[in-house]
Model the fold of this input.
Amino acid sequence: SGVDFISECRKGIDNIEISSDSVYDIFTKARYGISDPSSVIAEGLQFGMITFSFDLPQLQVANIYREYPGLTLNSAEDAIKRIHDIEEGKWHYPVNEFHEVVDMSGSFQ
Done:
């Protein structure tokens, strides 16, 4: 269930906050964003967030973010490890590889 998933994601981590704020308000406050395969992933990238899409092939026939290594997560454990690795400098988020997902040039014509 969603409650169990949130509980697993928060286990041992004291800096995760559950919020009911508008997602656009959260984009300006949060460092990380995790969602199902939705526009939240691309929009978060444009706001400078480190975003991930859950990719559950056993449940999702398609996930447009599956084609971009580093942009998807397969479990709560994967999310925790990825964020820990970023925070500890063991892994770098490959934001430059996501230019096909969204224009991050900062100039819109």
Q: What stands out?
A: The mean pLDDT is 87. The first strand starts at residue 32 and ends at 35. Helices lie at 2-10, 23-27, 39-46, 76-87. DSSP finds four helices and three strands in the chain.
